[in-house]
Amino acid sequence: MTAESAPVRPLRADQARRVADILRHQIHSGAFDAGIPGEQQLATEYSASRNTVREALALLRDEGLIDRVPKVGTRVATRKYDHGLDALLGLQETLKGHGTVRNEVRAAMHIAAPPAVARRLGLEPGERVVYLERLRYAAELPLSLDLTYLAPDIGTEVLGHDLENTDIFVLLEQISGQSLGSADLALEAVPADPHTATTLDVPGGAPLLMLERLTRLEDGRPVDLEYIRMRGDRITMRGSLTRSAPEWKVL
Prior knowledge:
Blueprint: H1 12-28, H2 39-45, H3 50-62, E1 66-69, E2 73-76, E3 81-84, H4 91-94, E4 101-112, H5 115-120, E5 128-138, E6 141-150, H6 152-158, H7 168-176, E7 180-191, H8 194-200, E8 207-217, E9 222-231, E10 235-238
Parallel strand pairs: 3-10
Antiparallel strand pairs: 1-2, 4-5, 5-6, 6-9, 7-8, 8-9
Helix pairs in contact: 1-3, 2-3, 6-7
């Protein structure tokens, strides 16, 4: 026989975190654009104490998502932009309908490809590539710092276009005469180094979303390798996934 474990009484901090997670989703989906309900209403809705709700709201306030104004109430301070993981889109396409995306071009030049970059782009060691560094703004607020390596033939033509107002993906398709086909990507959290922190206007060490993406043309040729540092307080990565039928083995 095995003795049943006594139920663990959840800490208020754990409960507050769970409430904050649900509220955060509602904030991003626009459920509270007219204002966030009062503490007592939220406590009833989530079967939690007012102290728990107060702690949950404090967590969201510390994230910069809400403002708590005495005698006025709690309101949404900012909403994040949704960035899809299941479609190959440039930032302007991703944020269509959310204002103008502007690029500050900080570097645009030919450089000798680092060996790892040359391998990813299918180039010979030491072959030159086009390197771009762009600080990208949405609603005139810094959103991401993009470091891009382009295949030399297409990249050279990209340099002759309006890089301040045009997505690279759009230019790649125009210049190559092909659609983009597929991309390999990796997403991780990284701390902001001092230079990036200053550039993106965040505290040093603040968590950033780092997206590494290798993009290919429709014919399978790799042409674009990017390292994109995004402000985690302004971007939410979203995607829709499906589960394939499991393969059952009969023993």
